[in-house]
Amino acid sequence: MSNPEIEEIPIRDDMIRLGQLLKLASLVEDGVEATELIRNGLVQVNGEIDDRRGRQLHDGDTVTVNGRTVRISTPAGS
Q: For the chain, how many structural domains are there in total?
């Protein structure tokens, strides 16, 4: 079930919130779009739908939106 098209998204700290990641990874245009996608159950974290915009994400976590998957990469995880 491995996806070769997972894009690594490096972050500076050891954690990022879901809404912030969606913007950083250009999965959404702005916070309003992020909120709508999350509220409508269109965002998966580690393969499961998550409706918490403030969800804390850490090294190795994956986020999928509209068929595009990204993986968090932190300095500690490198």
A: 1
